[in-house]
Design a protein that fits this description.
By secondary structure, this protein is of the alpha/beta class. It folds into 2 domains: 5-71, Beta Barrel (Ribosomal Protein L25, Chain P), CATH 2.40.240.20; 78-248, Alpha/beta knot. 29% of the residues lie in helices and 25% in strands. It is built from 7 helices and 13 strands. The protein has helices spanning 22-31, 88-100, 121-135, 149-154, 186-190, 210-218, 234-248; strands spanning 5-7, 17-19, 39-43, 49-57, 61-71, 78-83, 105-110, 142-143, 147-148, 162-165, 184-185, 197-202, 222-226. Strands 6, 7, 8, 9, 10, 11, 12 and 13 form an 8-stranded parallel β-sheet that branches. Strands 1-3-4-5-2 form a 5-stranded mixed β-sheet. Helix 2 (88-100) packs parallel to helix 3 and helix 2 runs parallel beside helix 7 (234-248). The longest helix is centred in the middle third of the chain and has 15 residues, at 121-135. The protein is elongated and about 70 Å long. The two termini are 26 Å apart. The structure holds S-adenosyl-L-homocysteine.
């Protein structure tokens, strides 16, 4: 079994001693039952991955003595996910899977139909750390505090395309899945995208409302895309679209 892998918020260099928080210390000593000297792998998002040795600190604590670098830091695709927070389990799932799929930045977006529930950014960060540890990535996705859709669109910078998962046709009264005015299939729409940085936007359980859709479709940096003829749950839409983006635009 490979050595356990932990994220630490500490500079990593040979000979350094990285402190562990209580949860990490408990995990290594009580759950994994590691003895002093046992190998642990660590990363901090900037210095690559290092092999380290479990080291007693003080009377009861443990830390990690950093030994050698096992992987240099590498750049990952500049991919962001803007997602309308869905009920708690859904948001957890989106953050976990987006982290596994290599998203660099996660931005919760408040839309008109977002079911008002507080977004617990701390909790989402913990989920992202666990997923990053598990998935062998070298960086952590950034998780920003929620912002309203209007604010995000107003402040949109430069040439970065916003791939918008749009499940409806152009006519808000038309039956879902109508053949006219549908957004282009995502695979086709992405063929033209060469930008170095990309963002994906997915809606809440109830979708975007007609006015939001009109606004989104009127903006030059927005690329409306379809994810096929079925209505996907918001979580599924985010995960499926990220997979397609990573395979055609990203690093798969
Ligand atoms: N509008 C629907 C469901 C919304 S699904 C309703 O009224 O219940 C939640 C979000 O997932 C949507 O806002 C959209 O961003 C995305 N989504 C789901 N299925 C999709 C599809 N087939 N194509 C594009 N986006 C989709």
């Amino acid at each position: 079994m490979p050595a356990p892998r932990l994220f630490v918020q500490h500079p990593l260099a040979a000979g350094g001693l990285a402190p562990l928080d209580d949860g990490q210390a408990r995990y290594l000593t009580s759950v994994m039952r590691l003895q002093p000297g046992a190998e642990v792998r660590v990363f901090n998002g900037v210095d690559g991955e290092w092999s380290a040795a479990l080291t007693p600190v003080g009377r009861k604590g443990v830390g990690l003595t950093i030994a050698t670098q096992t992987r240099p830091q590498t750049a990952t695709p500049d991919l962001a996910l803007y997602f309308a927070p869905v009920k708690r389990h859904g948001a957890d799932l989106i953050v976990e899977k987006a982290t596994e799929l290599g998203v660099r930045q996660l931005q919760p977006v408040i839309t008109r139909r977002t079911v008002a529930e507080t977004v617990r950014v701390d909790r989402l960060r913990r989920i992202a750390i666990e997923a990053a540890e598990q998935t062998e990535r070298l960086d952590l996705p950034e998780i920003a505090a929620p912002l309203p859709l209007g604010r995000i669109l107003d402040g949109w910078g430069g040439e970065r395309p916003l791939v918008y998962a749009d499940e409806a046709g152009d006519d808000p009264t038309a039956a879902w899945g109508g053949a006219t005015g549908r957004a282009r299939p995502i695979g086709e729409a992405l063929k033209d995208v060469k930008a170095p940085s990309l963002a994906l936007l997915t809606g809440p359980e109830g979708g975007f409302d007609a006015e939001e859709r009109r606004l989104l479709r009127s903006l030059p940096f927005v690329i409306p895309v379809s994810l096929g003829p079925r209505i996907l749950r918001a979580e599924t839409a985010a995960i499926a679209a990220l997979a397609v983006i990573q395979s055609s635009w990203g690093d798969w």
